[in-house]
Amino acid sequence: MIINNVKPVNSNQPINIKISDGKIAEISSSPIIAENEVLHLEFNNGIIFPGLINSHDHLDFNLFPQLGSQLYNNYTEWGKYIHERYKPEIAEVLKIPVELRSKWGIYKNLLCGVTTVINHGEKLGTANDLINVFEDSHCIHSVGFEKRWKLKLNNPLKKHLPVNIHVGEGVDLQSKNEIWQLIKWNILNRKLVGVHAVAMTESQAEEFEAVVWCPQSNYFLLNKTALINLLKDHTNILFGTDSTLTSEWDMWGHLQSARKSRLLTDNELYNTVTINAAQTWRLNNGGITQDKDADLVVTQKSSNSDGFDAFYAITPADLLLVIHQGEIRLFDEELLEQLSNIKEDFSKIYINGVCKYVQGNLPGLMADIRKYHPNANFPKSITIPD
Ligand SMILES: [Zn+2]
């Protein structure tokens, strides 16, 4: 496949890319001439960037609406509250088989241009090739909710895996103390990736390989987020959406609110969803260089702005093309003529009224889910043609 005339984020020089065997094979400043049978896409004023890496989600929880109606001191308080207050709502969503819920969670990510998601929880165990569902970490829920967490943390058979754990999700002393507990009990000196870290101090951050920042979820529960502007000097910062239980479905909305907080520079925030995440999870993507996996997104510019202003103004409706390991997973109707031969395997949807083709039968999946839950919580901006 050849992609001609796209501009990387923060550059005015268009580039041209050749993809083969799922990898970026060539990057050139002059247009690449396609050999006969090679798929060849020409863009005009498109932005290209690596497929986003969402470092925290619970794929099977994305049919829940946001649950909670006040602020909480910590996640255990919130957890107790929602199980008491929203018992019927929770039961209704859990009636939908977990496979269907997880498949929707994958689409939720793909529709935002995410090509790798780090799923927290039980391994899905189902093969999926639409995006990378990364499960090579050792998920321990949290100090508060995981039974026998000390034993699990010190399981020598899992020593080679990074520990992926919610930590310090609260504003009280208990939340700060649980981080010290985790550090103290990390006897095998395992690599720790801490999710949320709202209560984390700079000295605690030194003990973590990375912290996954989920600002929207934090503001919803606690009206406070992690001290990312300080923690960034002590650990690697990644970015996560968490599930729709505590945040909106659209990752671009998350990035926009994160940018507004000004806790990271535009470039630092960009790195949290690309190169920082690729390094922490040891992935061969997150950048546009030769031999990297061809996980790439092309969008149109939705505003007159340039550079990072243009990048952070993107919405899912602007996505023109999502490529995962060299294969097209989503494309805009604008490319239909150039891609008419691959259309069969794709289904048609609208995002905010803009027509997209996504691989697989998304309308069928939504219909299957509605058999179990007629009012399932799909985003209002996603519609299916009659
Ligand atoms: Zn979570």
What do you see in this structure?
The protein has 13 helices and 18 strands. It is of the alpha/beta class and 386 residues long. It has a domain of 228 residues: TIM Barrel (Alpha-Beta Barrel), CATH 3.20.20. The strands form three sheets. Strands 3-2-1-4-13-14-15-17-16-18 form a ten-stranded mixed β-sheet, with no helix packed on it. Helix 4 links the parallel strand 8 and strand 9. The two termini are 33 Å apart. 45% of the residues are buried. The mean pLDDT is 95. Zinc ion (ZN) binds next to loops.
What's the topology here?
Elements: E1 2-8, E2 15-20, E3 23-28, E4 40-50, E5 52-57, H1 75-85, H2 87-94, H3 98-110, E6 114-119, E7 132-134, E8 138-142, H4 149-153, E9 163-167, H5 173-184, E10 192-196, H6 202-205, E11 210-213, H7 215-222, H8 228-231, E12 236-239, H9 251-261, H10 266-272, H11 275-280, E13 296-300, H12 307-312, E14 319-324, E15 327-332, E16 346-351, E17 354-359, H13 362-372, E18 382-383
Parallel strand pairs: 1-4, 5-6, 6-7, 8-9, 9-10, 10-11, 11-12
Antiparallel strand pairs: 1-2, 2-3, 4-13, 13-14, 14-15, 15-17, 16-17, 16-18
Helix pairs in contact: 3-13
Bound molecules: zinc ion.
